[in-house]
Amino acid sequence: MPAFFALATSLMWGLADFGGGLLTRRMPALTVVVVSQSIAAVVLGAIVVATGGWSASGPQLWFAFAAGLVGPVALLSFYKALALGPMGVVSPLGSLAVAVPITVGLVLGERPGPIQFAGIAIAVAGVILAGGPQLRGAPVQRQAILLSLLAALGFGTVFALIAEASSSVTGLFLALFVQRVTNVAAGGAALLATVGRGARALPEGGFPWPSLPALAFVGLADVAANGTYSVAAQHGPVTVVAVLASLYPVVTALAARGFLSERLRGVQAAGAGLALVGTVLLATG
Questions:
Q1: What is the mean pLDDT of residues 90-111?
Q2: In this predicted structure, what is the pLDDT of residue 86?
Q3: How many CA atoms lie within 13 A of 84 on its CB side?
């Protein structure tokens, strides 16, 4: 079951990233983040009220609050790095986020077997290659590399924090609600700051209302992915769960291939294959 929930996490994160990437072609990235997370916060708030989730409040919610603060910083760092480019360097570096929860798991005493260690190594290599690393070309700006590594550290930290944010289903809904409200507050503050510097918060034609369902999907898929990851991490070894949950770049690449007819580069196809092999080893080890 932990493997199932971890793979479901990859599927939903991958589709959310794909949808978010398409939406940022129509409106500023910060606006996409704030609106999609606001929709998710409203839905989660209703669920918390309906399930009596407030009764599950406790010190663990500080983990959710911290994840809510770290998440937007990581996302903004990642978007800034993508803007500096090239994406063939930024995307694989961002995939190194998996190193954080793996390290946490090892520090806490988890010791995967030999087959699982092999699966971890192969799957991580597959995830990095699926991002299409750029091996040749113009020199990469140092700022892009630093921002990519900062984003990876932030994403990995969110992995580790959200796994500790609850110990029950109702508590999980509350933790995800707190995380989303914090995301919206932090992202909204950043959006106001950019508007204050003269940037636009909306496209020239105003808010693109036809995109609202897509924004809702991105926000809710991201929430669902956080939830399934938390469940998987609570019932399985984090060193394995984190790797399986980190296969989302493969899902994003395949979605681009299926919906946008983007051709996978040879290195990406090889990465997807390695990720599949690593997944099988992790599931059977």
A1: 81
A2: 61
A3: 17
> Which two three-digit tokens encode residue 267?
């290195």
Of 77, 89, 79, nearest in space to 21 by CA: 79
Residue with tokens 């040879």: 266
141-160 confidence digits (pLDDT tens):
778 778 888 988 998 899 88
Task: Tell which residue, 67, 56, 52, 62, has the closest CA to residue 160.
Answer: 67
- Name residues whose C-beta falls within 8 Å of residue 73's C-beta, 6 or more positions apart in sequence: 150, 154, 186
How confident is the model over 261-273, as a mean pLDDT?
Answer: 77
Task: Please check whether residue 58 is in contact with residue 64, taking contact to mean a CB–CB distance below 8 angstroms.
Answer: no
In contact, 81 and 90? CB cutoff 8 Å: yes
Q: Rounded to an integer, what distance in angstroms lies between the CA atom of residue 143 and that of residue 157?
A: 21
Side chain identity, residue 201: A
Give residue for tokens 């750029």: 134
Pull the structure tokens for residue 204: 């020239």
Q: Which residue has the tokens 């932990």?
A: 2
Question: Could you report the per-residue pLDDT of 102-124, keeping only the tens digit for each?
Answer: 888 888 888 888 888 888 888 88
Q: Which residues of 241-257 are buried (b: 16+ CB within 10 A; e: fewer)?
A: bbbbbbbbbbbbbbbbe
Task: Name the 3-class secondary structure at 262.
Answer: coil
pLDDT band at 217 (very low <50, low <70, confident <90, very high): very high
